[in-house]
Amino acid sequence: MPPELSAVTTGPDESAGAAPAKGRPRSEAVSQSILEAALDLIAEHGTITDVSVEAIAERSGVSKATIYRRWPSKEELIVTAVERLKAPIPTTMPRTSLRDDLTHIANNMRKTFGARDRKVFKCMMTAVKEPEYKEHHDRMVEHRRLFVRETFAHWAERGELADDVDLDLAVAMFISPLLTIFVYGHYSELNRPDTVEQFVGTLLRGIGGPLCESRA
User: Which regions of the protein are recorded as binding DNA (predicted)?
Assistant: First the structure.
């Protein structure tokens, strides 16, 4: 039986995009059609630069004004669309051990992406080198990083991390390989069900504290 999950605070919803303005409620279906149109066009063009708001409006069947009421810029629209492809941050956690929590987070990242979505991710990795995209992208993903950092900090206080572990480095060591395998599609031979458990176990053998080792 899986461990009981505890509710956690995850911060703002990364898929929300810009804060809604006052007035008539917006249609989620319209917003989703705009985001899907943006993703389709990015994959078709193989670049974000060549995708215009005009093209997104035409593909989704809405006006440019409808788009700008939801997102103040093309950059924010694109980053929101890409971020929505990722699995949401868990709203509950096992909180039974560091191993269980990391396994839960990692399994949550094991979302199956199609060819279109992988093309979009590759385009985004190129686009974030530009300041106008990097600013929005960093803001969107920062609360994901903080969520994982808070998980490590929670268990560090309980003796499940070695005393000399740098939490920011631990977060990078945890997130980067998972993104590489499950999101960006590299090392496809590792995209299998048992990878998460093996990965978490290997990581904790390097940075786990005495209490963590006693649970292994």
Answer: 52-71
The CB density around residue 206, as the number of other CB atoms within 10 Å, is: 10
Which amino acid is present at 87? Answer: A
Delineate the domains of the chain, giving CATH numbers in brackets: 27-84 (1.10.10.60), 88-208 (1.10.357.10)
Mention every residue, 6+ apart, whose C-beta is less than 8 A from residue 27: none
Residues 165 and 12: their CA atoms lie apart, in Å, by 28
Q: Which tens digit of pLDDT belongs to each residue from 151-187?
A: 999 999 999 999 999 999 999 999 999 989 988 888 9
Q: CA 55 → CA 68, 80, 121, 139, 213, distances in Å?
A: 14, 17, 20, 26, 55
pLDDT at residue 34 is higher than 80: yes
Q: What is the pLDDT of residue 20?
A: 46
pTM, two decimal places:
0.79
Nearby residues of 60 by Cβ (< 8 Å), 6 or more positions away: 30, 33, 34, 36, 37
